[in-house]
UniProtKB/TrEMBL annotation:
GO terms for molecular function: dTMP kinase activity. Its EC number is 2.7.4.9. CDD domains: TMPK. It comes from Deefgea chitinilytica. Belongs to the thymidylate kinase family. This is Thymidylate kinase. Phosphorylation of dTMP to form dTDP in both de novo and salvage pathways of dTTP synthesis.
Amino acid sequence: MTSPPRGRFISVEGIDGAGKSTHLAWLTDYFLNKGISLIQSREPGGTGLGEKLRALLLNDAMSLETEALLMFASRAEHLAQVIEPALSRGDWVLCDRFSDATYAYQCGGRGLDKTKFTALEQWVQLRDRGLIEPDLTLIFDVPLEVSQARMATSRVLDRFESEQQDFHARVRAAYLERAEQNPQRIRVINANRSVVEIQSELAEIFADYE
Ligand SMILES: Nc1ncnc2c1ncn2[C@@H]1O[C@H](COP(=O)(O)OP(=O)(O)OP(=O)(O)O)[C@@H](O)[C@H]1O
Ligand SMILES: Cc1cn([C@H]2C[C@H](O)[C@@H](COP(=O)(O)O)O2)c(=O)[nH]c1=O
């Protein structure tokens, strides 16, 4: 029996308050309306164990090394339990953050040595056919003052969201650096526009996807 074609793996990224959740909800409906069999998940999290790690990561003080290791522990479980089985079945995976977030937050924001990031990425994501990475990553990009204003009206801040401005500035710069290094995989979306304008760009990007 032949196996189904591998599903597509799409991740969504951005600094806190960029509007990621808003666009994820819209993208999920958009793909389901196209008849695509899709799971939506998130990192850190996405499994029973991953959600417990998420609660620790978002709330408890810890060293940078511990933070990076727990992000990748959550990712290892998520890949094994959710992402790889879904892609093998032919389902698409729409993921709220993946390893670009570790590059942006832990390396960019907190100063984790990039060789440590690469070692963890290889350990957790390397398979016979190469590194498991999203086929496409969308980075929703906004200036800091816009993200801060959006967060101020919408939530109680967690451990990352309540970091200082310069932390968020470094995270944003690291996302943009990562996009420059991976132009074939990563698209930067100007999210400092109306939701309708952004959705119309998303519909253009995914018009041919089926
Ligand atoms: N383009 C936009 N223009 C104006 N307001 C927006 C826009 N996109 C999102 N918002 C609002 O900004 C706030 C934050 O949006 P959202 O929760 O989607 O972003 P996020 O913080 O990136 O997501 P997450 O919770 O996953 O970190 C919400 O109140 C949302 O309605
Ligand atoms: C995967 C991942 C996430 N983070 C940070 C980024 C966010 O502040 C939170 C997750 O919250 P969200 O509302 O779901 O965006 O976690 C990180 O620092 N490193 C990572 O690898």
